[in-house]
Amino acid sequence: MRYPKKEGAKKVYQKRAGPVKDYSKQDGPKREYKKREGPKEEDGFTDKPKREYLKKDGQQREYQKREGPKKEYSKNEGPKKEYKNRESPKDDDRFNDRPKREYLKKDAPLKEYQKREGPKKDYQKKYPERKFGKGSGAKRTIRKKADLGDNDGTIRLNKYIANAGICSRREADQLIATGAVSVNGKIVTQLGTKISPEDSVQFGGETLRREKLVYILLNKSHDYITTTDDPEGRKTVMMLLKNACTERVYPVGRLDRATTGLLLFTNDGELAKKLMHPRHGIKKLYHVELDKNLTKRDMEEIVTGIELEDGIAEVDEIAYDGDGKDKKSVGIQIHSGKNRIIRRIFEKLGYKITKLDRVIYAGLTKKNLTRGRWRFLTSMEISMLKMLS
User: In sequence order, which residues have a C-beta less than 8 Å from that of residue 355 and are 6 or more positions away?
Assistant: First the structure.
């Protein structure tokens, strides 16, 4: 509800002149409080007579207590009333006059099937794009992914760069868009460009070669650095893969110098990027040996999550190795790709790792692969990795 505005000029507030009176400090003794006698002067209802509430008969009756024993209502005497079904139809039942449906019993003979007479309808003429008849039910059609090349032997430029081991296809598209790639001496910026095997592709001042995709599994030894080249002249993992293949392969992830175990090498840049991305949750199982027994309290704390300087370290599983008698030997499974994550977890709790070995990586194991040896992956293992990623 809106109230109408008052007409006329507004009253201007004027500040009172003079000092402000201080009521907190008053001179003189305090007066004693005395209870007032008699009726209050401001009470305008003292002389008014009290209202009398009368009963129905006009007079107030005094309350009289009832004499005699109290009546118990819980126990009713006499025989109980018998329940009888209602014989008359219900008032709201509108279907009393409808005859009941008769259902055939099991022993009754079934109706004989009568074949429909007349010519069959030809649905093929009405719907020529559909298939009718036996074996033409609604089946899911699984189509193979469209090849990035045509039947004439051409291939997309981003796939050619990825197969050369430079980067993934998505990163290759960025290189093409920025003008860093040239074909036959001409810079190409159009995405989706296709090239033939006779074309020459240049990137970074070098001519790229389309290499065959290679996948190698290495059981890394101690005291080797996970890098392709070390300026200080230390031993690298590429020394263990000497003469393994002519293609240029790169390690997927890394293991520090003191860590041993499985390490994957490939020139498939797209697969390598997916395996290293934490979104895909690639499982890695490590065998850890500590300098002292791991308590159950610390083990439970590791499962709930250890807070490190770069966030909370999550662990999938952790358990004592073997029958659990050796509390210094532990198996731990993670999917995180943070640097030195396992060593930092145990260092946070006051433990020192004496041995760290990666025994399983993305479903691949060390079976029949001794320390310092390598092998090519089988076609089944390659398909499994592509399905995981």
Answer: 260, 287, 288, 289
